[in-house]
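Hi everyone, sorry if this is the wrong subforum. Our group has a chain we'd like a structural model of before ordering constructs, and none of us has done structure prediction before. Sequence below.
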Amino acid sequence: MSAIAMETQIIGNSQAASMETTRPFFSVRDVHSYYGESYIVQGVSLDVRKGEILALLGRNGAGKSSTLRSIARTNDPQMRQGEIWLDDQPIHKMKSFEAARAGIQLVPEDRRIISGLTVEENIALAKVAPGNGWSLDQIYQSFPRLAERRKQEGVTLSGGEQQMLAIARALARDLKLLLLDEPYEGLAPVIVHEIERILHSIKPLGITTIIVEQNAVAALKLADRAVILDTGEVAFSGTAQEVLDNAELRHEYLAI
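Answer:
Right subforum, don't worry. Here is the predicted structure as tokens:
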């Protein structure tokens, strides 16, 4: 373990002890997850405040997407140990559909736009779920591109527009924690800026966001705080600006 990782672990342990009586809005505690017998997420712990944007970073294979999927309670990877709390709800005791009803929405890398349905039908289908999500009018006001294409089949949209649609579907449900897996991949800068505008606009509403993104600099400029994973473990936890200001840290764990 490097000196940076050791110092971070000591700080993390003292923070965990001080938070026993005051649980943050969202917390992950010592989560261990496996793909079969492959040990992927190796004791990850993190905290996120309400309305905060957290960048979850690391090299390929560090366990970022697996951590998101563990939080969303998908069946793969299998979480075998640890606790996940959202707004005092024990997410670790829930199945994926229950976690979604509790307010966790995962936007996966492939976006999963439903073929054969229009933009509006994709959003309407998401609104069938219980909860108080955004209305169509609210969504179209924040996503004017989607309003213009509301009758177009969702899978025929550009990659950036499909990403907006995937986020809009999450907002149509009762959303407390938004999990974004590689939202900028393959997108033009103008579309990235539009998505960043939307993510900033939902912060005052108390919606918390965790973003996994290979474009680490873009994610850090968007985020309030950052957690860096290294082979399934937390190597750093602190402010996003600390990572931007620390060339040694970026080189060691992010290769930038």
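For your construct planning: Residues 3-103+179-184+209-254 form a domain with the Rossmann fold fold (CATH 3.40.50.300). Confidence is low (pLDDT under 50) at residues 14-21.
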